[in-house]
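Q&A FORM
Asked by: J.P.
Topic: structure of GntR family transcriptional regulator

PROVIDED:
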Amino acid sequence: MNGPERKKYNPDNKTGYEYELLADHLAGFIERGEWPAGSRLPGERALSEEYGVALDTVRKATQILRDRGLVQTLKSKGTFVARR
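REPLIED BY: S.T.
REPLY: Here is the structure written out as tokens.
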């Protein structure tokens, strides 16, 4: 593989839409406390590059996290882990 190794977010080889798998992976960071309440998630472009996925995939994954109530997005500020 050329270039930097991409982070793997599907270690169990689960099937499903890529954006759903990514959302589950990112939700794991929140649930384990690696991203505590109030912390800012990496930007969409940074996540896209880090995981080697399309920007739209990251946007759909972020929307799923919003729908689950795990994050809040503030226009021109970023996406933050929601307080429970």
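FOLLOW-UP: The chain has three helices and two strands.
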